[in-house]
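pinned: reference chain
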Amino acid sequence: MSQIQQLTDCELNEVAKLLQEIEIPGLVGERQTVLYLSQQLAALKNQEVSLKIDQRIYRLDKVKKTADTDGVLVKARLEHLSLVMEWIWRFMDIIGEPVSKEQAAKTEETFIEAGWLFLWEVSVKCVSMANAARPTAHSITINFVYTPREERKKGYASSCVSTLSQLMLDSVFQTTSLYTDITNPTSNKIYMDIGYEHVADSALVLFHEKK
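pinned: its structure tokens
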């Protein structure tokens, strides 16, 4: 993962002035930079700014904690369509980006066609999900990690992500990465226990007209 180069406040002030006349719905990027730049830009444009997404970015080079529950990682197949569609629909609602079930079905079809959507299966029952996406020459991102409420706190998400991460490392990728909600200590701990290391924080902010 590339090293993040911090800009000075003076440089960010100049960037804000350059962006002042451009219609921008929001900004996304390194957290500290985005929060400072958005405040300066909002002041210049007489607008308000709100934090939409607050994320922590992790990188994994070596899995430290392997699956500790009975189960197996299986690639999502056509027979899983209705289940995965429901899970994607619920996942999007949880992260605050609700979609229709039709949109969830299209996302699911894309994932299955790509061949990197996996399910954690225990006693022939699917109990958790994770997807691999956005491959580069050396790294790939793990996302759409979801476990239905009735199957949580059993270690299934950890096992699913751990095994999928190892599968990616055993293929052509040197590292895997993932994004978490900064405010969710449970998921952050799960990934750090697996071996994911914090490399940066990311924020998405939106601009609004003052009320």
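why pinned: The mean pLDDT is 93. Residues 31-45 form the longest helix (15 residues).
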